[in-house]
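Hello, quick one for you while I still have it in my head. No rush at all, and the record is pasted right below.
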Amino acid sequence: MKRTPIAIVAHGGAGGINFPQRRKNGLMKAASIGYGMLAQGASSIDAVEKAVMILEDVTIFNAGTGSSLNFMGEAEMDAALMTSELQFGGVGAITHVRNPIRVARLVMEKTDHLLLCGEGAIHFARHMGIKYYNPRTDEKKRLWKRMRKKLQSRYFRKLRELVEHYGTIGVVAIDTNGLITAGTSSGGITLRLPGRVGDTPLIGTGTYADEHGGVSATGHGEEIMRAMVAFRVVSLMARYPAQRAGKIVVDYATKYGCQCGLIGIDKKGRIACANNTKAMSWCSIKDGQMKLFDMKN
């Protein structure tokens, strides 16, 4: 029986690329460790979870430690994990955990639910042995204070202009058995209202996988939700190679003012990286060959 070629691709957000070397180092580490696990026969679920956790721990990315802060200065985070067998688990507006993707996987494997949010998600995490952790960093606290001073009213204005201040991290992989897993984790938009849940943990918007492929999206969450970006790309993978499917959807999103980026892998192991923002950081490995984003952007 012919074994499916393994592959992995990770992204670090589709806003402007500040500190490109730090992003490169984090993405290379996550993709390399994930690919190594796949090469040793690990499932794509394990490889994606591990790679996402690595990115959640790199403070330059807007996920896990270093997440953006909401209007009240809290780090409410979203995360989701989905497989090509339609397994799904997500958490929304969760606080005080180190790796939201771990909790998302526990939701997928230990409950009958797909999504837990807020206090309920935190209570579940504690019940499953996830310890208290403060993901706020001094860097993000300083950014929050600067941006808060710029506000002209108690509640923020439309946030389209803040696209370069937020991002998401995501990983998609296919293992030797052909199982595809997509994982996404986000710290949200700076100064968002408390309780806001973005596209990341909503099935079909920021994260989706089925028999045709898997996708993790990044960008302006509200617009990604309206465009159902991840689901559209995976659906098109039934007819087109991954990169073509991704470009079609990014072009569609552009027409409707949706600033976004995405990564994906189809059932043949072909990789997609597409965006309509100024830049998107990413790293992929297939057939032992690593490819990286253009650090000049």
Notes: Residues 20-39 form the longest helix (20 residues). Confidence is low (pLDDT under 50) at residues 162-166.
